[in-house]
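#structure-requests
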Amino acid sequence: MTYLVFARAAVLRNLTYRAGYWMSLTGTASMVAVQYYLWSAVYSTAGLAPAGMTLGQTLTYVLTARAASTFLSLDAGRGISRRVRLGTIAAELARPVDLQLSLFFEGLGEATFALLAVSAPVFAVLVWAGAVVLPSPGALHWFLLSLLLAYLVTYALSFAVGLVSFWTGNGMGLADFLEAGVFLFSGILVPLDFFPGPVRALARALPFQAIYHLPMSILTGRAGSFGGALAMQAGWAVLLIWAGRVVWRRARPFLVVQGG
């Protein structure tokens, strides 16, 4: 019950700042529209189906990935860096709670609000407009489970990277580097199946594919084995959460509080 307080506080905070919500919704909808027209133009000009993906599959993949991006946020690492820089991390460490768990539930509250208030409405409009093709109910259930595992991977990655600020005092640069890696190799911009062989092999060796590519492959029916995709995501989630615990134990003694 203790940690649910952090999730509840995050939801209430988002409900308070409504201007931020409308900006997030408008920004997500705008990016979805840009990608819709971009990929429609690519297919109409080329007249081909890259990697055997139809226009419908590609739109379902990239538009759903973009709609889910507010849910799969990398804010945990930036939050840690901001707390270290401002000095508020000291007060948080004085609480009788686990930092990794408290930030997880805080992020879960943020993500739940984003999912229900931004991602779900945008996805519903895409389905209504026929831009996204829904799979069978069974596949949709696996997709939702995959999306949950993707959140765990996203949080674990961001948390581990954010801890670097305990050594450096500011982890924003590394957080930007992580975000760039996710944009390039996760499938949010371009389906990984479209990449040249060596680049595709590199992307599939990184944990980033577990954030967007694997869930979207399940949604579009291109995952091959749903169980295999979910097992890969679960494996990355467990490995990264464990890595975060290891880094956290080593980072805490290096904390130098800045600010107030």
